[in-house]
Amino acid sequence: MIPELDSEIGITAHSTQFPGIGGKIRKNPEDFLVREIISEKAQNTIHDKDGYAVYVLKKKKIDTNHALSGIFKQKGIRLKALGLKDASAITEQFICSGNKGRAIETFSTEKYSLEHIGFVKKPLSKKDMIGNHFKLKITECRPGLSSFTESDKVLNFYGYQRFGSKRPVTHLIGKAILQRNFKKAVDLILSFTSRYDSKENNEIREKLSDEQNYAKYFDQVPLQMDIERMVLGEMIEHGDPIRAIRIIPVSLRRFYVQAYQSFIFNHSLSAAFLDGENMFEARTGDICFDSDSIIGKFDKRLVQNLALPFVGYSYYKKTRFDSQISKILKREEVSPKDFFVKEMQEVSSEGGFRQAAIRCTDYVSSVSDDVVEFSLSRGSFATILLREIMKPEDPMQAGF
Fold first, then answer.
1. CATH for the stretch 31-132
2. I want to staple 257 with a disulfide (CB 3.0 to 4.6 A). Which of 14, 158, 174, 297 is the partner?
3. Whole-structure pTM over 0.85, yes or no?
């Protein structure tokens, strides 16, 4: 049975036969360990001489963006991460300066530490991060973890955190932006409620569903709702939805659109799999990624991984998945050209391709039958592999 939350984000299938062991994840931060992996080439460029400073950021109970914001406030320097890590884990990742100069001395706070490890001649980028290694504990589970042998048969869905986890709204905001319904986008940001969110949060959001209440309840909006407060303040002062959305950092605005693209991708992957398409082997005419993540047509002489279109304004129709994708776009009342947003061009997206199946390596389950370790390539979600192992009835209750 597919949980309701899965269906809401476009995941309507399981791809493995494993019955699932149930249980919970993230009961303690120490139960979810993530270590970023950079390419050997990038690793070899780190040296002791001058250049762009490279650091390792270790953190707990704080997401990457808020940690970087804290570093800026304390040290006055902006650093860039190769990938984003959420707050519900203990994580280790690479951070790089965008400017040459003296490095920050190693320092730590209650939630994170920053260790300077060297310099590079040019800043590290997202392309240098090739994956993540995970060590995860599943508590309160049934026996049988060691019997899971289908780590090579997991569809590469976008995970729950892509859509807001306990408040799955990011893709809905993205769709509203693409449909040029900017007032609806503002309404979703401020007043979308979820059964998984706290009673207090839902109560204030219900009050904000009426525009007449904006000024009255502004001071009651919790400080942690920083985006909501920014949008609300702009609406109170100017009443212009486009201007209110533009107050949001451009990276997050783009993320809203990307979340909707992820929603369509999840639906496309589900539909193709349920229609009987082989999603784990490429064939003649398919678009694939090779071992160096270079995209091209299927070539039986190469080791390649099947890819599906990631819909944008340059959507490539000539794949065996166009019938499923076209039906989804028609049902959603959007078209590829909608992904070019004339009124807000900075969030436009041409689309591309994404791997159809998770590429999992170094998979090991422990003798204690509740700990699993594995590495995933960049962009794949550990929670999606865990979804196949645990088969949770309620992902949020299970810690997803």
1. 3.30.70.3160
2. 174
3. yes
